[in-house]
Amino acid sequence: MKGFSKVRTGIKNPKIALVYGYGTFRNRIFGGNDGTYVLDEDWDNLIILDACRYDLFEDVNDLPGELSSVRSRGSHTGEFMEQNFGGGSFQDVVYVSANPHPAEVNAEFHAVKQVWENGWDEELHTVPPEPVVEATLEMASEYPNKRLITHFLQPHYPFIGEEGRRFHEEYGYTSLDQPDNIWLRMRRGEIDRERVWDVYRENLTVVLPYVAELLEKLEGKTVVTSDHGNAFGEWGIYGHPGSAYIDPLVTVPWLIANSKNRKSVETGETTDRMSLEEDVSDRLEQLGYT
What's the number of CA atoms in the CB half-sphere (13 Å) around residue 3? Predict the structure, then answer.
């Protein structure tokens, strides 16, 4: 159904057809998008901001460090995870995730912490930053000699800032497969693009102080990046569908923070997988994935 929807949309908008045509070509010929394999880069701690496009981060960021952009290997969290971790065993990596999507990837890590299982806020329809920071510091203390990945959900929809909450009071929460989701309504002109951009921007300002706390407390070299961006009508694309390899979706920040003492990373023997619980589909739906 999703594939048919893309074809139908592409017929109406040739630009969209070009985007998905290129994505299909990349996937069939090269096995996915080109871009950075995050595990090949030099870091001790990798902080992932979900759905954070580079130009927004560049505008809002007040974190210390050297900022550049890199190309993500996915325009969607599932693609990012599969391209970077799918089928692998990473015994020197601990993964802390607020996003349920990583639970769907076939990969092994030294240890995992699925914050969305106990840190989900039913009122906000997401995992706020606080339990992510708490879980990250716990795992950093328990595994001081492992590379650490922390995956926040913000600035990804839903919007949890003051203006964002007012936005949801007016427009509600809707999954992406529904005809009244915010991205399709924005395409149809029913929701003002600037208003959505403002609450999306606010969502980034909400999470950055928590990232700053981690930069202050974590030992080792820390990098801040994103799994993918978010489109606001460029090439006719809204949101962050898979296989849409346009700059707003795959150009993401790469902030190298001022490093403290480097970790002495050791490979362990214990491996752990993220597990799929019964409520993962419900959580993904609330985030707008299904």
Answer: 3
Q: How far apart are CA 165 and CA 42, in angstroms?
A: 38
CA distance 250 to 242: 11
- In the chain, the amino acid numbered 71 is R
Mean per-residue pLDDT pooled into runs of 10, the chain (290 residues): 47 74 69 86 97 98 96 93 92 93 81 92 93 98 96 96 95 78 90 96 98 96 97 91 89 91 80 57 54
Cα separation values, 155 from 11, 47, 139, 207, Å: 31, 13, 23, 7
Residue range 36-275 in CATH 3.40.720: yes
Q: Which residues pair with 224 in a beta bridge?
A: 47, 255
Is 86 exposed, middle or buried (CB count within 10 Å of its CB: 0-12, 13-18, 19+)?
middle
**C-alpha–C-alpha distance, residues 73 and 95, integer Å:** 18
Neighbouring C-beta atoms of residue 141, cutoff 10 Å? 10
Q: What are the structure tokens assigned to 178, written together?
A: 């529904």
**Most distant pair of Cα atoms in the chain: their distance:** 55
* Cβ pair 116, 122 in contact under 8 A: no
